[in-house]
Amino acid sequence: MKNASPGVTLPELMVGMAIMGIITVAFATFLRFTIKTATSAQTGGEAQEETRQALMKIEDALSHATEITISSGSLVEFVADIDQSPLYDREADWDGDGIPNWRDADRDGDAWLVLPASAQWQAGDNLRDDDEDGDGRIDARRRLYLSGGDLWLDMSVNEEPWGAARLKKIMTGVSTFTLTYWGNKANALGRNIDLGNDGAAGTGDAGENDGIISQKEMDMVAPPAGMGNRNGALDARNERRYITSIRIGLGSDKNRDGKTDYAAETDIYPPLLPLKSR
């Protein structure tokens, strides 16, 4: 008769449980790492796509800017041609000259008018006429700004109040939003103001004759070389006339943890800005 197999001893049981514990902890750690990595990758991908989509909408809106009316680091307001207004009828013939609006360089037929300087914006060719429907108000303005972590794009038609039915949210969970304005020495207005941060010629300070027209130079170069008022902001119309491009910095905090999950920067060159400001 064979002896029965001995059972598991207490030391063996304890060793086995210890090994199982180590394996369980290692697996749990690996699982947490895998989940965290996958979640982070998904969050980053979603943040990248949302940021990309928002930048496309921003570029589409700003590409139609004809004049910048507010230029701060967190808000830009600009005038657009009436063809960006929902009230625009491209097939109509507002001045009755037999040319439909979309082909007419002077849709309301007032390019020959010479008005007082304060009212000249209401007449001229389409680019310089901001009142093509003749109601005495600016046809179309747009505004891009950050509020409460959301990025908004607004439109005012015929100077209606901001924040009406045309207000659109184009991105949520925004962690960073910056606007930087640049000029161009190739533009007639920018040729003489590449004078650096102090706005004075011959001082050799940072930015002088570097080929770049910064918003600092737009403000700091005073007459007769420039049109700046030297107060630290682009808050005068003549200063804003130098603007030819806008740099947008945009970051997304997709999971709302206070950290940027994805950020991008792009430069936008509205083609009509330097033309209208000549």
Give a concise summary.
This protein has 278 residues and is α+β, with helices and mostly antiparallel strands. The chain has helices at 10-62, 215-220, 237-240, 273-276; strands at residues 65-71, 75-80, 140-147, 150-157, 168-171, 174-183, 213-214, 245-252, 262-268.
- As residue ranges, the low-confidence spans are none
Following the backbone from N to C, one meets helices and strands in this order, namely: HEEEEEEEHHEEH
| Main sheet summary | 5 strands, antiparallel
The helix count comes to: 4
Global shape: elongated
Q: What fraction, in percent, of the residue positions are helical?
A: 10-25%
Structural class by sheet pairing and helices: alpha+beta
Structure description:
Helix content is 24%, strand content 22%. It has a domain at 88-132. The protein has a 5-stranded antiparallel beta sheet. The protein has a 4-stranded antiparallel beta sheet with strand order 7-6-8-9. The protein has helices spanning 10-62, 215-220, 237-240, 273-276, and strands spanning 65-71, 75-80, 140-147, 150-157, 168-171, 174-183, 213-214, 245-252, 262-268.
